[in-house]
């Protein structure tokens, strides 16, 4: 059965355990790379990554955005409204809908 993986700082990911997700806490880029390797070896349909870790693993995550599995989603940091999490969300919505409907007028 496919699972959900959550990769990020310990305090940010452990809350997802209650939902049945498999948590991969990583406090730096080296730990995150090792955890990402384990995730990619497993049967994960969805990968949620905190924005801070996504920035550290930008090069490793980039090719995964176009693959069907796992679906990679960045958890936007509320303190960074213009971070990569929101940018990725904007691009995906624009590609799906054909227009920027989320942030019109805020750019």
Automatic annotation (TrEMBL):
<keyword id="KW-0813">Transport</keyword>
<dbReference type="InterPro" id="IPR036906">
    <property type="entry name" value="ATPase_V1_fsu_sf"/>
</dbReference>
<dbReference type="GO" id="GO:0046961">
    <property type="term" value="F:proton-transporting ATPase activity, rotational mechanism"/>
</dbReference>
<dbReference type="InterPro" id="IPR008218">
    <property type="entry name" value="ATPase_V1-cplx_f_g_su"/>
</dbReference>
<dbReference type="Pfam" id="PF01990">
    <property type="entry name" value="ATP-synt_F"/>
</dbReference>
<comment type="similarity">
    <text>Belongs to the V-ATPase F subunit family.</text>
</comment>
<keyword id="KW-0406">Ion transport</keyword>
<protein>
    <submittedName>
        <fullName>V-type ATP synthase subunit F</fullName>
    </submittedName>
</protein>
């Amino acid at each position: 059965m496919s699972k959900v993986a959550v990769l990020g700082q310990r305090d940010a990911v452990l809350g997802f355990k209650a939902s049945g997700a498999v948590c991969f806490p990583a406090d730096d880029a080296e730990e995150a790379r090792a955890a990402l390797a384990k995730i990619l070896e497993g049967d994960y349909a969805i990968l949620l990554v905190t924005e801070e870790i996504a920035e550290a693993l930008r090069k490793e995550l980039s090719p995964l955005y176009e693959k069907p599995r796992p679906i990679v989603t960045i958890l936007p940091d509320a303190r960074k409204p213009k971070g990569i999490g929101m940018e990725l969300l904007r691009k995906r919505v624009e590609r799906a809908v054909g227009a920027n409907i989320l942030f019109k007028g805020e750019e």
